[in-house]
Design a protein that fits this description.
single chain, 179 residues, alpha/beta, Double Stranded RNA Binding Domain, SHC Adaptor Protein, 2 domains, four-stranded mixed β-sheet, 3 helices, 8 strands, 30% helix
Length: 179
């Protein structure tokens, strides 16, 4: 893969790290020749308390979607490898989904996919409206779990503002509130 952006936060991106990222990203092309571009953000937490100070965020732009992976650990090279492994799994799943669509007859033909030179721009393809009800964040989390969603928008009865509760990767919940 020739087109990618590599960013380091609290970290100097050495030539060795750059080559490691390039080598790992080039392996992903066998899973999807239609990867438009990639963005890789490498960061290190310097607070001394983090048990996984090295963090990698990778995003691949592919026709009709975006594929992301976030990993953290104690060794930057291992974390890069873990993130690429997650992207491999997601690309395989994405490819399987396309093949299934093709077999059902609702597949977008290869000729309709953008060329490598053409930039893919995601667009809003669905609009959903619903009533926002006042409730506590705890009630919103319970409602989210009952619906099987990863997030839930509600009116916070304590602040009387629209908020979002979401499920974190660590199994806990997060709360987004307007400032």
């Amino acid at each position: 893969m020739n087109v990618y952006k590599l960013v380091g936060r609290n970290l100097e991106v050495t030539e060795a790290i750059r080559e490691h990222v390039q080598q790992r990203l080039s392996k992903l092309e066998r899973f999807s020749p239609h990867i438009v571009d990639a963005k890789v953000v490498l960061s290190v937490k310097n607070d001394g308390r983090a048990n996984a100070p090295h963090r990698v965020e990778m995003q691949l732009n592919v026709p009709h979607g975006v594929i992301r992976a976030e990993e953290a650990g104690t060794d930057m090279y291992a974390v890069i490898d873990m993130a690429v492994h997650v992207l491999e799994r997601q690309l395989k799943k994405f490819r399987t989904k396309l093949i299934t669509r093709e077999q059902r007859g609702d597949y977008i033909p290869e000729s309709a996919l953008p060329d490598d030179d053409e930039e893919f721009r995601p667009e809003i393809v669905r609009n959903k409206r619903f009533e926002v009800r006042p409730m506590t964040p705890e009630d919103a989390a319970a409602q989210m779990e009952a619906l099987g969603h990863d997030f839930f928008m509600f009116e916070n009865s304590k602040t009387e503002r629209v908020s979002v509760v979401y499920k974190r990767k660590d199994g806990h919940y997060g709360l987004l509130e307007p400032h």
